[in-house]
Predict the structure.
Amino acid sequence: MPDRSPLLEITGLKTHFFLEQGIVRAVDGVNITVYRGQTVGVVGESGCGKSVMARSILRIEPPPGHIVEGQILFHQAFTRPGPNNGPSPNNSSSMSRSVDLVKLDARGKEIRGIRGAEISMVFQEPMTSLSPVHTIGSQIEEAILLHQDVSEGEARTHAIKMLESVGMPRPHDIIDRYPHQLSGGMRQRAMIAMALSCHPSLLIADEPTTALDVTTQAQILTLMRNLQQELGMAILFITHDLGVIAQMTEYVVVMYLGEVVESATVGEIFSQPKHPYTQALLNSIPQLGRKSLEGRHDRLMAIQGSVPDPYQIPKGCPFHPRCPYNDGDRCIREKPALREISDGHFAQCHYAEELELEGSVDLAQLSV
Ligand SMILES: Nc1ncnc2c1ncn2[C@@H]1O[C@H](COP(=O)(O)OP(=O)(O)O)[C@@H](O)[C@H]1O
Ligand SMILES: [Mg+2]
């Protein structure tokens, strides 16, 4: 039975950019809980604050952005080996400690001890974390040596093992190559190997497969799923692609303009969405077999309107200018609160209970 204690609890997180043109409230009151070993998906259109939120967790929020409010509680768990270093529970003691990552100095020793060790991140573009002037091996070894008390030889052996575990062909050879000598898919594998080399309890994956062709994307997703099961880590999986969400995650958080507008289990998000924005995202998924009455494949429905200018977030419900259910009154005047509609299912819409939204997407068809 998986351990369902919370690992990461984000409460009321706000990360704002103070620019000459105005304030960009990139993340504006986000709540997300990730349990140990759980995969939580974060989905939303480009520009809705997913990456700024993810970077805020590791305290690498892009300047001039900074966290202005909120809490990010990370529950660290240590298992202290007993005198015999044996695996028996009697030989070890578990302790846990909670740290508010918001309170840490973003350049301090404590967050550097967590970054890359207990919480790791993989990006859309591997060269965000890989250096072009060092070999793959030296970079993975450095990450291991930074956080673990091992010799250089042991670090190299471990690095080769990590490359093997991410399905890298010829790891003994690849380890001495430079990133530019590898294909995009292999670079992505190398980045994942580096991110997992210290066995993090949380992996943050920010659009890790967006830049890859579909075949490589499928391989990397399968790899991440297998590693997640094997290593028991939790994953915060960020993507704009609901198809990827369906394949990878258990619980889904839908973001719009820096806020969480809906969150629920993956099954409920797909079958009973409670927010019109979620429904619009679902309608924009290309689906096999979704045919119009004339037997032709439907054209994809784009979400009407476009994401508003970040300096001009609409009053009332932030989604009202694009919402087909806008009542022209309350939706424009009053901002809805994020409410629990049913057990574990939250939505930020005045009419969440009344609207009979259709989950027109067959989850089984998306989960390849
Ligand atoms: N360095 C920056 N300076 C100013 N604004 C930024 C910066 N980085 C991101 N933003 C703004 O923050 C908002 C959220 O961006 P981001 O988190 O990258 O979105 P997503 O990852 O969901 O596509 C956007 O409006 C973006 O313009
Ligand atoms: Mg992003």
Remarks:
- Residues 17, 24, 26, 44, 46-52, 62, 65, 310 surround adenosine-5'-diphosphate (ligand 1) (CB under 6 Å).
